[in-house]
Amino acid sequence: MAAASQEFEEGRLDAAQVRVIIEGSYATVIAQYEIERSGAPVVFEAPRLPGQILIVDRAFGPEGALEVRQLVDSRRITAPASVPGLAQFRISYRVEDDFSSIPIFVPNAPSAPRSNPVQLEIIGAAADADPENAVPPLQRGDGGALTATTAHLPTVIRLPAPRHGLFTTRVLVLAALIAVCLAGFVWAGQAAWGRRNRGAGAV
Q1: How many other CB atoms sit within 10 Å of the CB of residue 190?
Q2: pLDDT digits over 90-105, tens only?
């Protein structure tokens, strides 16, 4: 325990699991953390992103509910100072309106120096979503869930967009270009027809 305290003043993130469940017009996030505490307070912070609402449903540690504060640019959750040792934390929250990017509560305790202590899982993404377009890149797992293992917690998870969404956008752009070209042809034809009529009348 003392070695952990001397190495990292804020403690050490040994493992984390983040599950994002897409449910219609919002996404539910359930994040669990295992932190080797140094005794100092543990602070979790998630950025505020434009166009979305973040609602913390529950935030618990070994001593019970954690303090939740709304700051100008972020949402902050604080676990008070405690005795050193391994502790588990659980934070559940909803992201409403624009949830194409999911803010993640990241503790001030750095990740442990071992490979891939963080597990990410996305449930309910569109079946035709390209997982490699997500940030960080995801893989299609059993049952259609998107998963990834990383060495560090990302501050934001950018969810993959459905492939048909990109296709629809391209179709709309192409249709607009065709409409503009047709309008130009119609205008040019009407102008030429008017000039011919004026010429015929002059004769």
Answers
A1: 10
A2: 999 999 999 899 999 9
